[in-house]
């Protein structure tokens, strides 16, 4: 991939943080966890593999994927199956250093791109010899998930880059989003689809992979985090699948409180209570609009449910459905619309959002690009209690939704008792970090990589 140029500029390479062989030194669990993390400058690809072909990548007892890792020195993670989804996400990542020989000319590419094409070739080799043919030529389709903040390097200004790739390779390339996204996608993803004869698709995939290599996503370091276990469905947030450890904690009350402008209450309740009844029914959460404490311009909405940590969260599902209806909407000078969501949090819980030295809140701001503020006491609304603090999230709809989801999943992890106990920084110290801790390992060594469960379904008006 050396020598690839694009409109966005070649990024500078860095010294890899991945450890070498390490001699005979034993690595502790924290070192191991860190070595498997995705760095901000790493090369990352998420390739969608049809469920029926996943065996050609895993192999018996995992022998094929182990060999691919060994041959390429790239990290390869195969995500769990998402209910109702016909594809599984294969995450391929490595240092961006171009160390592997590739192609007939033995050009140097990163280990991740080398692995990407080895995975691609095995999946395409499984294509049926007769289906999807045109004029006697076999047609194949490649689908990849690309973060929204990264897809621009493939599209280019006015679509010029993607059009050039189409012209040079004769492959069909489409950028799809919203209703076209599979259930295993993140709400902030776009779907890149390449179709054509195998040679054309391979050429187009190389050009696309090169541009993604040169332009890493600002949020890619969160792809393996526990927050990405929240799967997107047609109905909304569903949470992660059950823990492989078999541990099931006791059901506990979990609640969240949204501050809603009084003029928005009609949008929350709906005609004859139709909207709020629908959200209650579909989420399973109790939603209380407390007009008795309504003072000034605000009303308090409390969302709660009895929850088990390892199971889907009705409370989070309901909050994500309510967000747009409870938020203030405003227009920037640029003409773009933004929403502001306000959440009341007990002072005893606020530490899990701030972190030591403000590390956690800074991470959330950076990864979501949202304005996330903890307001001082004098700026609290009248509906707040004495021991409350208010979290205020502002951004466009997608940005604000992702930020809210990160905030409330941390609050849930902090509030519910699990096999781990939260530290003063709000992170879990045990291996099971569930919803609340970024960058940790998951139970049983499983590597889920689902989606931010931002609500995208249609509500009654």
TrEMBL record:
Spell out the residue ranges making up region: Disordered. Answer: 1-39
Q: Where in the cell is it found?
A: Nucleus
The alphabetical list of record keywords is:
Nucleus, Repeat, RNA-binding
GO cellular component terms? nucleus
Q: Mainly localized where?
A: nucleus
Please give the PROSITE patterns that the UniProt record associates with this protein: KH_TYPE_1
BP GO terms, sorted: positive regulation of flower development
Where do the TM regions start and end? none
Which SUPFAM superfamilies does this entry report, sorted A to Z?
Eukaryotic type KH-domain (KH-domain type I)
Q: Does the keyword RNA-binding apply?
A: yes
List, for all copies, the residue spans of the domain called K Homology: 41-128, 138-213, 252-324, 337-412
The organism sits in which domain of life?
Eukaryota
Q: Which GO terms describe its molecular function?
A: RNA binding
Q: Does the keyword Repeat apply?
A: yes
Quote the Pfam families the UniProt record gives: KH_1
Which PANTHER family is this protein grouped with?
A: KH DOMAIN CONTAINING RNA BINDING PROTEIN
Name of the protein described by the UniProt record: K Homology domain-containing protein
Q: What organism does the record attribute this protein to?
A: Tagetes erecta (African marigold)
């Amino acid at each position: 991939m050396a020598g690839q140029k694009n409109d966005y500029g070649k990024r500078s390479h860095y010294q890899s943080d991945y450890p070498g062989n390490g001699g005979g030194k034993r690595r502790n669990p924290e070192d191991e966890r860190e070595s498997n993390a995705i760095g901000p400058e790493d090369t990352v690809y998420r390739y969608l593999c049809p469920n029926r072909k996943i065996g050609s990548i895993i192999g018996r007892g995992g022998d094929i994927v182990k060999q691919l890792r060994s041959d390429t020195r790239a990290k390869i993670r195969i995500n769990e199956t998402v209910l109702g989804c016909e594809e599984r996400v294969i995450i391929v990542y490595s240092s961006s250093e171009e160390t592997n020989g590739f192609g007939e000319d033995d050009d140097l590419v990163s280990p991740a791109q080398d692995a990407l094409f080895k995975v691609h070739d095995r999946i395409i080799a499984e294509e049926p010899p007769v289906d999807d043919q045109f004029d006697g030529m076999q047609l194949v389709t490649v689908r990849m998930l690309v973060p929204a903040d990264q897809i621009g390097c493939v599209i280019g200004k006015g679509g010029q880059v993607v059009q050039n790739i189409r012209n040079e390779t004769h492959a069909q390339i489409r950028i799809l989003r919203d209703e076209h996204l599979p259930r295993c996608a993140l709400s902030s993803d776009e779907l890149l689809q390449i179709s054509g004869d195998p040679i054309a698709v391979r050429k187009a995939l190389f050009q696309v992979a090169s541009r993604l290599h040169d332009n890493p996503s600002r949020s890619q370091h969160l792809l393996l985090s526990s927050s990405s276990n929240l799967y997107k469905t047609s109905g909304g947030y569903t949470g992660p699948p059950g823990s492989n450890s078999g541990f099931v904690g006791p059901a506990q009350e979990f609640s969240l409180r949204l501050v809603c402008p009084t003029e928005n209450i009609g949008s929350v309740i709906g005609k004859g209570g139709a909207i709020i009844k629908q959200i209650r029914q579909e989420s399973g959460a109790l939603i209380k609009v407390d007009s008795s404490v309504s003072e000034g311009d605000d009303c308090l909405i409390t969302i709660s449910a009895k929850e088990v940590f390892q199971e889907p969260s009705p409370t989070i599902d309901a909050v994500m459905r309510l967000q747009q209806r409870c938020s203030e909407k405003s227009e920037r000078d640029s003409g773009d619309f933004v929403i502001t969501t306000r959440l009341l949090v007990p002072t005893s819980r606020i530490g899990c959002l701030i972190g030591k030295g403000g590390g956690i809140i800074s991470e959330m701001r950076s990864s979501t690009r949202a304005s996330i503020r903890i307001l001082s006491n004098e700026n609290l609304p009248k509906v707040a209690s004495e021991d409350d603090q208010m979290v205020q999230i502002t951004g466009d709809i997608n940005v604000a939704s992702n930020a809210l989801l990160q905030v409330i999943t941390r609050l849930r992890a902090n509030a519910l008792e699990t096999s781990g106990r939260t530290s003063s920084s709000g992170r879990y110290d045990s291996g099971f970090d569930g919803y609340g801790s970024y960058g940790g390992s998951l139970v049983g060594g499983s590597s889920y990589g689902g989606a931010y469960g931002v609500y995208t379904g249609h509500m009654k008006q």
